[in-house]
Amino acid sequence: MAGKPFLRVTKQYLPHVARLCLISTFLEDGVRMWFQWGEQRDYIDTTWGCGYALASAFVLLNLLGQLTGCILVLSRNFVQYACFGLFGIIALQTVAYSILWDLKFLMRNLALGGGLLLLLAESRSEGKSMFAGVPTVRESSPKQYMQLGGRVLLVLMFMTLLHFDASFFSILQNIVGTALMILVAVGFKTKLAALTLVVWLFAINVYFNAFWTIPVYKPMHDFLKYDFFQTMSVIGGLLLVVALGPGGVSMDEKKKEW
Questions:
Q1: Rounded to whole angstroms, how far apart are CA atoms 25 and 237?
Q2: 213 DSSP assignment
Q3: Residue 106: which of 130, 90, 126, 118 has the closest Cα?
Q4: What GO terms in the biological process aspect are recorded for it (predicted)?
Q5: CA pair distance 31, 62, nearest whole angstrom
Q6: Which of 2, 42, 118, 213 has the most CB atoms in a 10 Å sphere around its CB?
């Protein structure tokens, strides 16, 4: 298979790269909370009328929660707690920034949650490896469903990239992208499909979200920067799929039984 030589060469490094990509949006957002403390606090205060103290507490929670979660994930300490904390940050921001009513941003946040689910599944597998040889049938089941849920949520990112116009390139992109999304979601030829999506999404991200070409003082700079790192996090989730495989609830796994 085309993807096997790549996997052999990158086997040791791929999970580390995947985790770094996955937490990149939280790292960027945590740093942004520090440098834009006043702006973020004033936005929350104005939007929710919660007062200076609560708005400041919100910014502080986002700053500490995200940076602490990133450090724990990268250091491989208390990863499960870090994932739950980052899940909480996603939920908090979804409500606070009214993302719940913006379908595109909601789907991207759900895709980000899918990446965290895969990270949680990876941390469970690491924990189980300490007890090699001990039967863990019932315990491994949640991990398999985490991988399934993670794969399904990840493809939501690609649904936000579909363009409904009549140009040849858009039609081709939609057909190929949809086919790859289905393959990842159902777990068929999963590693190759996920790796192809990584390449495709990275190219789109660099082309459309080139925030470094926009002056820092322009609002579009922050918007594209946010989009860029959120997309990198989804790429990290897909790289975890490439590194770990689709899990037990997938067509690839069922083929082994046939």
A1: 12
A2: G
A3: 90
A4: Golgi organization; protein transport
A5: 10
A6: 118
